[in-house]
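Thread: Modeling a multi-component assembly for a lab meeting

Hi all, long-time lurker, first post. My supervisor asked me to bring a structural picture of a complex we are working on to next week's group meeting, and I have zero experience with this. I have the sequence lines for every component (808 residues in total). Could someone generate the structure of the whole assembly? Inputs are pasted exactly as I received them:
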Amino acid sequence: MGQACGGAFVLQHVRVACDGRASPLDVYLELVSVNFRVGEAGTNRLFDLGIGLDRVGGRRLRGGCRFLYSGNRFGSLLSQACACQRGEKDERGYRVLNRQIGPPVMRLVSGSRDFSHKTYRQLVELGLISARILTITFACAALAGAQPALTTEQKRLNLDSFEFIWSTIRDQYWDPTFGGVNWTAVRDEFRPRIERAATMPETRGLMGQMLGRLGKSHFAIIPADVYGDLDSHEDAGGTATAGFDVRVIEGHAIVTSVEEGSPASAQGVRPGWEVVSIDGTELAPRIQKVGEVYRNSTMRELYLARSVLAKLAGNESSVAHVQFRDGGATAVTKEIGRIRPRGSLAKFGYLPPSYVWITSRKIDGGIGYIAFNMFLDPARLMPEFGSAVHSCMSCVGVIVDLRGNPGGLGIMAMGMAGWFIDKPDQRLGTMYTRQAPVKFIVNPRPPVYSGALAILVDGSSASTSEVFAGGMKDLGRARIFGTRTAGAALPSAIDQLPNGDALQHALADYISEGGQTLEGIGVIPDVEVKLTREALLSGHDPVLDAAIEWIRTRK
Amino acid sequence: MHLRHRLTPAVVLAGVLCCSGHARAEEPFPKAEEILDKFVVATGGKAAYEKIHNEKSTGTFEFVGKGVKGTMTSYRAEPNKMYTRVELENIGAIEHGTDGEIAWTLSVIQGPHIAQGEERAVALREATLREPLLWRKLYKSAETAGVENVDGAPCYKVVLTPNEGKPETQYYDKKNNLLVKMTLTLVSQMGEIPSELMISDYKEQNGLLSARKTRNKALGQEFEITIGQIDYNIDIPKDRFDLPSEIKALAKK
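Re: Modeling a multi-component assembly
Sure thing. I ran the full set together rather than chain by chain. Output:
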């Protein structure tokens, strides 16, 4: 490469530009896109844009990537985009210095003058622009280099893909009214534009815009090379961990737990220590950027933690050079050998294999404590969970710790609830699909534990964790402690398109039993308790402590 | 034999009519009972069915395109006892059955469940051995609703209304009188879910022709069952249809 790359999306007097760089968020198959609503100067017309920013999916992309559209008007935009390697220059001569830094950064520019994030926020607040950070989409790598014109065959495949996308939404979107969007009119609008599209990025951009009309998360176009990664079924490289967990607390990456017997434990790493840098990379800028991008998202806490954990991950034989600030605020550097993640490797269909663990014990003289990291591996996890509950039938209370649990198989939430609910026909919520509503019914599993139940959650508790916690809260069966969950509950599927790209689309909406949607809102704890560095340093877990206190003192 | 009961190891089926076709007046359709009786003949005849007192079938189960597979074993015995076990890789076992009175499901994930009402009625109906012979007892009406093509083959469309539950529609190939498609509603505690079953690969064994492959579409997902082996009139353990302990515990409540 080496040529200037990038472009700009010009909408009369408003120019929108996005930088997307290889993100630290990648190991969780999370892709990121941004939808804009842009006001056209002079006409006050609004246009919806959907732009994929960065990559992800288990491996880092080729480096800093500028991803810009250009054009005189939105309706006839000329799209250009490319990925830059380290040392390359972008369109304005800015050299790409770092291949690894940062989350996606978004800014508006007008003419040649950059707008700041503050300006962007003001525009958002004024209603001129609404941006929604989505979980899932795109890779800059797919946009690498100068974009060749599409061949006749590629255009045909793109049209076939367009029809596949449009008809899939038509047939499978859970709301047959499409939330008031005239889906047939959307097709009539976009098909001619797809026919005229000259490059793959332009085509994908148009498809993304079409999906953006639905205004929902979990709808995205995944470029072919990314989809190839997702579908390769390879054992993911770089999944080894440093043996400790991290949350970002008040802007600092704080160790929240250390795996017993791990190299980190052997080296004296303790909860409450701050992680300052990893392999020479200072975390503060990374945390600041991720926090800024997800400033208004319920998924902020989730992505902040992931941005650090992703940096800590690596190959099993590798060593992480980690600088900490210990309990005495002294800088401490440790070389920590990465280890295989805790638990057993579990597979489910074509999902990448994941390490799944469950632990249970009695704490505080008679309270059951159960924690597990994912709702997967049901053949092993469900019996172990059931045994843990049944071994605690005389306990004064049971605590289920879902902090950091990203979810998994939704049906497992129903099954676990059955060990705590003895009344038949109760449900955690309802999933609304196009074909029919599906009730998340709980089957009582006698003997049922009928004592106090506390569920611990945080901003990294997502999906099935939210289904379980939200449903149990709504049923009045559990008291929830911690911080608001991630608000990311919609089930989605990925279908390959004729042109090799893939369509990610949500299959259903989900409403918890209390009548609230979880998506974008999350589960609000009954008792909000935040972790603090001080508490962790003193050997306390304030969230767990609050749950124990409630169990001990409830009448 | 009727394959329907083998198609839904995780949920119990009920019938509902999903299609809206009407008979065209100019075409003289045979009566539904004639079509259903021809199916019995086409699959071996009344005498062959009456020789059957129990059966065991084994096969595979797959969620199409999801990479989730498993094995399936099913027993049925007269008059309406049934036990089916599906073992899905990395998920565990899903069982369902009936002793002729209590219809139940037991899943490692979802736990025990005893069917009530329409769900129970459907389970008992589908557990009925020699069901094709007994449709007059199991359904209160059957009507021919027209002709429709299924995979290019013209088929008679028959709407059956069970004694309890919603109607279901069955499609019989005009050429060979075999059942090739059903549309109905899966009735389970999780709701009523429209479903379509494509039935194929008929093979003869012990004088009976039975379908060996079924592809079921529901909620935008597909699962496929392939029957590899069917054995008739075998020695089934006496306790095969006894209620599992978890179901007994639930039934006591």
